[in-house]
Amino acid sequence: MTAPNTHLQDAATKLVQAATGYADDTLTEELTGIVKLHASLAIAGAFVPVPGLDLAALAANTWTMYVRINKEAELPFEKNVVKSIATGVVTTLGSNVAGVLAVSTVAKFIPGLGSIGGGMLLAATMYGVTLAAGVVYMRALAGLKAWEDDWRGVSPQDVERAVNDVMQDKQAMKDIIEDGKQYYKANKDSINRQRKQEDHSTSPTPPPPRKKPEEPNPYDEWFK
Description:
Number of strands: 0
Helix content: over 70%
Largest sheet: none
């Protein structure tokens, strides 16, 4: 098993090198951190009780991850373009773990097992697929070789083709997903703590209770 950090570090390093023309360890760490964070957030989607919505949650989380990668690396792609790419990546990577997805979906219908049991089956897979999705996107962007001038000449179709080219190596995709799954199983407690901390930090602070307006004292007029 290869540590997921190895896949991520390699993809992020190549993207940073292509984007900036030099090594930037800080930016590399920021990009790997974004992917690992969203992989941990993806686990919550595994416990969505309605079958099918778990994959929709995975696609939405992947889309947000890509938007954050673009922002961190100062890439100009529109959110709607990235949304389409994220959906395609999740669909393609999901085909590599179709068996697990099918079993977990069936489990959610079983009385006594339900969304908790199905979610436990799916959590590691969600983590692995999200890691792979991050690696795919960064490898694809690094491989476009369009950094000499700027990104104005790069079309959404160019990005989509680059992503599809990376995913042609189906064995590599399976290996990354499997490495991510095994990493999650071995580090489940710490990963879940990270997810809960992020959920707490991003939860909106409830507004203070509104004060009930004081009713006027009818005797105030007597003392004016």
